[in-house]
Each structure stands twice: as structure tokens, then as C-alpha cells.
Amino acid sequence: MKITDEQLNQYRLSGEMVRVVRDNMEDNDVKGIVVAWNEEQVMIRRRNRKVVKLDRSYIYEPVDEPRSNPEA
Questions:
Q1: Average pLDDT per 10 consecutive residues for the chain, totaling 72 residues
Q2: How many distinct structural domains can be found in the chain?
Q3: Could you please report the per-residue DSSP string of 21-70?
Q4: pTM, full prediction
Q5: Residue 57 belongs to what domain range?
Q6: What are residue 53's phi and psi, to 5 degrees?
Q7: Euclidean distance between CA atoms 40 and 63, whole angstroms
Q8: Domain-embedded: residue 71
Q9: Distance from CA of residue 43 to its chain's centroid?
Q10: Cβ(26)–Cβ(70) under 8 Å?
């Protein structure tokens, strides 16, 4: 399930750090701030100021919440 435009806009406006869960390995998570998005990708600015493009089908959640399991 893709994240909605409304959810992404809420994260962008609040400046809240998000966690992008890509697979079962926690080391592969991307943490940062939502910068922009289109129909297929989301741009996340990481702490080191590098911007990465990620697929919208990944799990996007606040960093301060428990990590979701992508298999669920």
C-alpha cells in the first residue's frame, strides 16, 4: 500500500523525522525528513544532508514509534 499525499504533506509540514522500512533488516532503514514526492517516489533528506529517492510502496512511519514489520 502506497503512502498517501496527505500523509506525506503532513510529514513535510511538521518536519518530523520519518523511518522508511524497506525490508526486515533494521540497518537498511532510511531516517530523515520528507522533502518532496511524486506518484512513484519520495525524496528524503537524511541527517547528513544527502537526499535519497525512495519508492512510495515502502513503509513510512515516525522515528519515535516502534518499527513496523514489513512482512505484516
A1: 93 97 95 97 96 96 92 67
A2: 1
A3: E-SS-GGG-EEEEEEEE-SSEEEEEETTS-EEEEETTSEEEETTSPPPPT
A4: 0.91
A5: 5-62
A6: -100, 130
A7: 22
A8: no
A9: 8
A10: no
